Amino acid sequence: MGKLYVFGYNGFGQLRPDRSDNFLVHPVELEATEPDGDGDALVAMVTASWSSAAIFAGKTVIMTQGFLNAESHQFRKFETAAVRSSVWTADGLVVVREGGECVQVDPCTGQQLGRWNGPDGAKFTDVVCGESTILALTDTGDVTMLGDVQSINPTPLPVHVGENVKAVCCGKEHSLALTVSGRVFSWGNGSRGQLGHGTTEACNTPQVIEALEGVTMVTIAAGGWHSVSVSACGDLYVWGWNEAGQLGLPTSKHKTGPSDGCTTCTDKEPSVSDMAQQGDNVAEVLVQATPTIVDLPTGQELSKISCGSRHTAALTKEGQLLTWGWGAYGQLGNGQTERCEVPCTVEFFKQRRVTDVWCGPWNVFVQVDK
Amino acid sequence: MTTGLPKELQGVVPGCKKALHLETLDKSKLGAPFFFVLAQSAERLFQGRFQESLGFATNVLDFCWEKLNTGHWKDVDICWREVFTFGSLFKAICQYGMRDRFNTMDAIKTCDLGLLMGAPVLDNILTRLVAVLQNSARGTTKRPQEQCSTPAVASQVPKRPRTLILPVIDSERKVPRVHCPSLKSFLLNYMRKRQPVIIQSNMEHWPARNHRPWSLDYLRQIAGCRTVPVELGRRYTEETWSQALMTVDEFIDKYIVQKSADVGYLAQHQLFDQIPELREDIRVPDYCCLGDGDEDDIVINAWFGPKGTVSPLHHDPQHNLLAQVVGSKYLRLYAEEVSDCVYPHEGHLLNNTSQVDVENPDLQQFPRFNSAPYLECTLEPGEMLYIPPRYWHYVRSLDVSFSVSF
Fold this sequence. Notes:
heterodimer, A: mainly beta, 29 strands, B: alpha+beta, RCCD1 protein (chain A), RCC1-like_dom (chain A), RCC1/BLIP-II (chain A)
């Protein structure tokens, strides 16, 4: 049985359809599979939208939860041909099968609703989605745009990176690509510095992030308006918007969003020295337009990172979970709703071994070793 | 059924979910899940289930907030700002209905955030709701006592000892002053000629300069609990510039009364849309009807801040009348013809702004600046300055200042 824990936004029952809580501040268990005699089936992956979640228990069993078929707190479970990647789009659920097909499926039944052709017959390996862009990666290392969610174009449009890409991810308005050689490219809107090119200018075509040249990156993740990557040496690099501390850098004392507790709010007068200065890592940072390293409190190495809209989660090689950023919906898993501007170990998992983590926009799914 | 709603609100707030007309919202743009949450909040509100309604209203606001921050503000579909107002409405009513957990100030703040970031719905319901909430908070329906109407305006406005160092105005470069010109004279001699001028004696009938004189105490009384946007940092052209939301009381405490190292400026804000009571203390100058466009389109901005606020040299596309209510400001003006001497920024975002720090110009970087002719003045309370379209202007407050621009 996969042991999955969930915390954060549950307004549609997407974490626990049996619970009416708007959000869960403490991790709770989610039974991922039924015991069917074939031993431990681990959760292969989770993909979550604002209002729903799809949990892939093994590669052929999909559990969908949340707002389905125009109703809230729904639960469905069905079998499907093996899936290797999946994402929610505005229209529904898109999956990439083990065989390399990219298809849209009914999230209640798994029935195939439409399909994209790979460019020149290439196979797809991965699919990701931003606010209105769906990107897919092929086994030839090419990035393609599956088109606007408003008008699914069955013929993907190529996105020119110029190198073999091994991973892609999207924020609300930007995209990142990690090449086989360990370089990071970015494109899209940059108004929060999420492109990492040192400005807040937009960039229509993929550009390499100059500041990371010379460092080999092994994994990338994108949140709503922020970007994260981990180097081969295990260093954590962050850039983009830090309004809720999602970069792990000091924040302003001022609330930003409607639901925004601030643990650093004091009666202290803001002073000129508190304002962000370039390269000054003691002062508050709102927009970090050039990647910077964030030290982890425990000095551990990271194996995986995942981002929600305004929070970040990271898995260490020793099986610990770190979270930071916006916490109003309990998405930091620490029993609080305050934001946290420093990567913090989630107490709940200290005695356990975390093996995987996936973030929805306002929540987190954690897989733990039994 | 109005069972759920607090009694005081029943005159202002619709009595049932139907009266909200949520069905007129574009569900295809909002998406079914979002619309579901919005409807859930509304339903529970009218059932008096405030805690649950508040939870959903908060979801609505947070989701909207993300939409409003995606892409350019002006490109965001107005429906998101409309539902942000609905969310604020529901949240404020819930907070007011749960006064064991929240106080009326929280509900007022919620309304203000809705007014600042949302778009009006239900005949500007938030403005009407916040008026009721303010009265409830004050414990009265009467507005603060008017001062005795002694037309000695100068003594009504708090006088601070003039220890400030006034800039010496070069008589050759003085902005001309004129007493209350006729509309025709103003149009022919100043507007058509693109001639800046200070109009005197045209604000004497303003309640703000007369029987309801604006002072820090008065502003606190009328609007102390209201949340407003404040610009922090010396100039908007610098990296350290940012915006924050705070109440008028907090703004006055931190940035006006205290000697804060930081500059805070309530600048370029349509305060009078947000706080209609203050709108009653000012009068739209007759000269505004001479400009292009409808009278209803006239944007009225408030500019309230401590000594030392600076608006860097820039120009605006429209005619501008800057009325000085409290305190004095130093202004310097450069005609459009000498634009190349003021070195505008490149790029379309800031090309209406000069790169030069007017009172401390870097002449190595900007050698032509000192050769440019200009006009300057000290704008005093009760005066209004006419700035022609595209005329460069630089402003520095010499004291605590409140200006209104039209």
